[in-house]
Write a structure and sequence with these properties.
This protein has 127 residues and is of the alpha+beta class. It contains four helices and six strands; from the N terminus they run H-H-H-E-E-H-E-E-E-E. Helices cover 27% and strands 44% of the residues.
Length: 127
């Protein structure tokens, strides 16, 4: 689909989705099961950089017990937001953390008035 055919999502949806996406990159969020369970939809699933499929309960358990780097420094580039349905947006971006890069895709949608993450995928970028 070319840029002319894209439907622009509502600015507040995009702004809220980016804020929530970045919240999930923060160490304090990743270690808080209550916040994770609020942000991740009941049927959330993820395909990780190594190709593993994760369910919501698996990712919450992993994130809350895994040691994180000492700081939250990351760089997001190539941000893009595409409207995919009423109240739903696809975010894609390039993430750089600790000298590693990955391409990320996330689908955020409103469910019962709350913005939640339905799906996420990370693909490692090799030089």
């Amino acid at each position: 689909m070319d840029d002319a055919a894209r439907v622009t999502p509502l600015p507040e949806t995009v702004e809220q989705a980016w804020a929530a996406e970045e919240m999930l990159l923060k160490r304090e969020t990743r270690h808080d099961a209550n916040v994770l369970n609020r942000l991740l939809a009941d049927h959330f699933h993820e395909i990780g950089q190594a190709g593993r499929h994760w369910t919501r309960s698996e990712i919450v358990a992993s994130l809350t017990t895994t040691a994180e780097p000492a700081d939250d420094r990351y760089v997001i580039q190539e941000r893009r937001a595409d409207h995919i349905a009423d109240g739903a947006v696809l975010l894609t971006y390039l993430l750089e953390v600790d000298g590693r890069a990955s391409r990320r895709s996330s689908i955020w949608a409103y469910r019962d008035g709350e913005l939640t993450l339905l799906f996420h995928q990370g693909t490692a970028v090799t030089s």
